[in-house]
Design a protein that fits this description.
81% of the residues lie in helices and 0% in strands. Helix 1 (11-46) runs antiparallel to helix 4 (105-119), helix 13 runs antiparallel to helix 14 and helix 13 packs antiparallel against helix 17. It has one domain: MFS general substrate transporter like domains (Growth Hormone, Chain: A, Up-down Bundle), CATH 1.20.1250. The chain has 422 residues and is mainly alpha-helical. The chain has 19 helices and no strands.
Length: 422
């Protein structure tokens, strides 16, 4: 009988590994989201519509990111996960540098495709490793810390990316976003532990599940299907609407990009930190009494946070806008770490990376791919009669989808106990 993987490591090693994965995820979020604060200068330089901006911010990144996530996760469920993550960081960082050299809109879109391909190899193996580093009763906290890396990534993308764009140009923002990842790729390869290297834990290759078996077992779990649907609807909004928020502040609220990059970036980062750590810590305690809190948390957070975002887009005052964003963001983000832990609780050990990858496929392809395009298309259509306020109304419409996400998460909670599997 193989030993539990987390028994191989000391407490210090676990947190050292988690620190590296924290930096990896922060780099992932930075390189992915820096595009959002650069959309307005890109729009002016290449003279493109909001629909094409949505394509650049969403579909160009998402299509191969989603499609390649599944085969990479199959590799991660069998292979050396630190090596996979290191290769992924090196590729997406290099392609981020290429974005800075683009001389046309379509060259930039092609480079964003490359960023998406690289980032497909990060999250599934990272979450799979965390589940092996930490025992079940401590995973919610570990995932909360891991997810909090998004705070650093968002803060850097909005503050540093926006400042560089306002002072040096949008191309320099991409260059400075890509450079740190090349060094991090080396640190990841050398610094992470792989439990499978220990023969007491390593699973023989012949025992690995076939893809069809894995897919069939996961789709039989109603909790997993509802979690994947909830994430897809959430990210349809998060990727679709939120990528246009800097453009909304600059275009509709008439704020300079340098101010937006610092103030909005700081507010959203603070909301992310409060929501991720506060929500993760609270739900971690509640889930010890009833594991369904892992899914009840996002079921409550999505419909509760939506009205604050709608109010933010309805106002004309920038300070009021930031206040509503802070409250709404804190609530929404509080529900995410528990939901990731819930996936690991119901999927079963042989298919951890695949379970994450399939959920990421749905949320990235449909949410990340089509969300920004739909948001941009609705904005373009409404601008005919409402001018720049077309973007305002488009964002308000998109936020209503969060109610449907909450419903999906709630239905997933009803099967959580029956589907639980170590």
């Amino acid at each position: 009988m193989p030993a539990a993987p987390w028994t191989q490591f000391t407490e210090r090693q676990r947190w050292s590994f988690l620190s590296i994965l924290f930096l990896v995820y922060a780099c992932n979020v930075f390189d992915r989201n820096v595009i959002s604060v650069l959309l307005e200068p890109i729009k002016h330089e290449f003279a493109v519509s909001d629909t094409l901006l949505g394509f650049l911010g969403g579909f160009a990144f998402a299509i191969f990111n989603a499609l390649l996530g599944i085969p990479i996760a199959r590799w991660a469920d069998r292979g050396d996960r630190p090596k996979i993550i290191a290769l992924a960081i090196g590729l997406w960082s290099l392609m981020t540098l290429v974005c800075g050299a683009a001389m046309s809109f379509w060259q930039l879109a092609a480079a964003r495709v490359g960023v998406g391909i690289g980032e497909a190899g990060s999250i599934p193996p990272s979450q799979s490793l965390i589940a092996d580093y930490f025992p079940p009763e401590r995973r919610t906290l570990a995932f909360a810390v891991f997810t909090a890396a998004a705070v650093v990534g968002y803060l850097l993308s909005f503050s540093a990316g926006g400042y560089l764009a306002a002072t040096l140009g949008w191309r320099e923002s991409f260059i400075w976003a890509g450079l740190p990842g090349l060094a991090l790729a080396v640190a990841t390869r050398l610094g992470l532990g792989e439990p499978r290297r220990n023969p007491m834990y390593a699973t023989p290759k012949g025992d690995a599940e076939a893809f069809g078996v894995t897919l069939k077992l996961l789709l039989r779990k109603r909790s997993y299907v509802c979690l994947a649907l909830g994430f897809t609807l959430y990210y349809f909004v998060a990727y679709g609407a939120l990528v246009f928020i800097p453009s909304f502040a600059v275009r509709v609220l008439q704020q300079p990009l340098s101010k937006v990059s610092l103030s909005y970036g700081a507010v959203y980062a603070a909301a992310s930190l409060l929501g991720t750590l506060g929500g993760g810590g609270l739900v971690n305690r509640l889930a010890r009494r009833d594991s369904r809190w892992l899914v009840w948390a996002p079921a409550i957070a999505c419909p509760l946070g939506a009205p604050f975002y709608i109010a933010a887009f309805a106002t004309q005052d920038y300070t009021t806008f930031l206040a509503f964003i802070f409250v709404g963001g804190s609530i929404l983000i509080a529900g995410l770490p528990p939901a990731y832990a819930a996936i690991q609780s119901v999927c079963g050990k042989p298919r951890r990376a695949m379970a994450v990858a399939l959920a990421l496929f749905a949320q990235t392809f449909f949410g990340g791919g089509f969300g920004p395009v739909v948001t941009g298309a609705v904005s373009d259509a409404l601008q005919v009669t409402h001018g720049v306020d077309g973007l305002r109304y488009s964002l308000m419409i998109m936020m209503s989808i969060l109610v449907l996400a909450g419903v999906a998460f709630f239905y997933g909670s009803r099967a959580m106990l029956a589907d639980a599997e170590e």
